[in-house]
Predict the 3D structure of the following.
Amino acid sequence: MTREEPTRPPKTGLAPRLRGLVFVIFMYALMAVMGLLCAPAVLIAPRKAAIWSCRTYCRIVLPAARLICGLRWEVRGEIPRGEALIACKHQSFLDIIILVRVLEAPRFVMKRSLLWAPVLGWYARKLGCVAVDRGAKGAAVRHMLRETSSDGTPGQLIIYPQGTRVQPGAKAPYKVGVAALYDTLETPITLAATNAGVFWGRAEIARRPGLAVVEFLDRVPAGLTRSQAMAQVEGEIEAASDRLLAEAMGRAL
């Protein structure tokens, strides 16, 4: 699949940029303060305390986004509980925040460079996130499979099947990582779509008012061939994300 031009949200004026700047300052200041205050508890009970700390952070950030920027959020569909493999569209840091807010024990397949990000990287390790070097390709997939099949960390494993953030409406290829996990773990895949990038864009200060949605879809059953599973993963996630994009563009200000 070739990459296409993304659907661009309406241009924003000065006020949304100023509100966005206030929110960004608040968000990262809170991350630093909470990261330090919660660190002793995380040292004592690494994963349990890290999950509580990250979820509490999200419980503060999401209402702040509504208060400061008029940005609301909503989750649709059945939220996975217990052990689960989740393949989710990735458009924004916002969809990560929403997933951490609603899942019981989330852990992400993430790019290795994020491990060195202040605060965020340390907590990602404690959550049990699986870091991969995207440039290593085959070696990265083998490392991911070793980490996920041998560490025994419970909870919901989230993988972004395109391997990176993709702007709303843009098309980018789906990587083999999700199919490799599907085969190795022999488990269904819960699919999820989003329109978060319309309101919280990559490398943008502005936060647009509106309703950001993460929607959990049907599961891909275990036992399919790789090609069958990948066709369902891509087809359903893209169709649902396009539907949510159309909804968001109709509401975007």
Q: What stands out?
A: The two ends are 31 Å apart (CA to CA). The chain has one domain: 14-251.
